[in-house]
Design a protein that fits this description.
This protein is α+β, with helices and mostly antiparallel strands and 121 residues long. The protein contains five helices and five strands; from the N terminus they run ααααβββββα. A hairpin with a 4-residue loop joins strand 1 and strand 2. The strands form two sheets. It has a three-stranded antiparallel beta sheet. This is Tyr recombinase domain-containing protein.
Length: 121
């Protein structure tokens, strides 16, 4: 479900929101502009525009990035289970998410560069 003006008005009036709601392109651009200087911008960009799950973004390491070619390799995910932080394999494409190598438009991966001043943790 997309966050339309009617859905936003309903949420503000009732507090009810859908279990899953997708931002519009304008809402996504507004968010990314607002967090452009945040040290987590590269992760937000990859999640918003490349479909990474939070756990996949949290699992990225420097060795998973090829900044010269603008690629990131999704090789693991990090999750909290029963109060513990655990690492595991990413979801497969059949499970509806990442796995394997991902091409980027260069911006998200490039923004992870330590020279950008807002690199990955």
């Amino acid at each position: 479900m997309v966050w339309t003006e009617d859905l936003i008005a309903h949420w503000k009036a009732t507090g009810e929101r859908p279990s899953v709601a997708v931002w519009t392109a304008t809402q996504t651009a507004t968010f990314l502009a607002a967090v452009a200087e945040d040290r987590m911008y590269a992760a937000f960009h990859l999640i918003a525009l490349r479909g990474l799950c939070r756990g996949e973004a949290a699992g990225l390491r420097w060795c998973d990035l090829d900044l010269d070619r603008g690629l990131c390799f999704i090789t693991r995910q990090v999750q909290r289970r029963d109060g513990e932080i655990v690492q595991g394999d990413p979801k497969t494409p059949d499970e509806g998410a990442g796995g394997g190598a991902g091409s980027d438009d260069g911006e998200g991966v490039e923004d992870a560069s330590p020279m950008s001043g807002r690199g990955m943790p």
